[in-house]
Design a protein that fits this description.
By secondary structure, the protein is of the alpha/beta class. It is 50% helix and 13% strand. Helix 9 crosses helix 11 and helix 9 crosses helix 13 (275-292). The longest helix is centred in the middle third of the chain and has 29 residues, at 185-213.
Amino acid sequence: MVAYVRESAPPKENAMSTAPQHPTVAVLGTGIMGAAMARNLLRADLPVRVWNRTHAKAAPLADDGASVCASPEEAVRGADVVLTMLNDGPSVAETIEAAAPGLTPAAVWLQCATVGPEATAELAGRAAGLGLVYLDAPVMGTRLPAEQGELTVFVAGPSTARAAVAPVLDAVGQRTFWAGEEPGAASRLKLVVNTWVINLVNGIAECLNLAEGLDLDPKVFLDTMAGGPLDSPYLQGKSAALLSGDLTPSFALTTALKDARLILEAAEQTGVRLDLIAASAARFTRARAAGHGDEDVIATFYAGRPEQP
């Protein structure tokens, strides 16, 4: 079940009484995260309609019981909740506009992609124009937590929508943090969380780079850290993935680069200087240029190796 760790005003009684217990959910975007979320919605016995720009990524969900649709408009027709999990603000905006003719009036739009505060404000405006209830709802977690229904969801938006989305949040996450009534608060929080994650993964990569450069077995470093106050599952898990050569993305390097740029844009607008994130963006850019963009974010390791003459 979802743990509401911060509450705003409780939903109005009429909103709770009219919210469907098994809302129909349209999932727009079925990549790594969206497909996992759709499967967890289906396991919770919710009717699910899915669409993806690349149809082949959505098609396997038919075997799990989803209705695979040919267009966003078809996917949202009759949906009580529209969940978007796309790459960035422009792709979300384009998709919701394509869906517009099929939208149900007063449906809840659960916008789960990390798009940054500026795009969030623009999307909230679009939602108002389309008659949708907008929830700014980026998620924390990668492939495995998404598959296990253990994401943390940051949500900002009207408390009257909570009952409508409760079955959806219960299905996709183990924890929901209500950040406020106004869209944007959740997206701002997500950028702070991603600053920690991005700095952490590059810290891991640089430790492994230096171990390699000093001809030190990286397992000695990892064994030294194991169980101590500076150890973490993230350190051990990302290092193990890199050392095994399994760079199947749970958080793709290109996505991390996109998020780093969103963080830098937000920092610039507020006058904050983020030296580590700027360096991380440069590392991600080099790693992508070397062909590692579609691999897991720990492939940032390759940006730290000596340049070949």
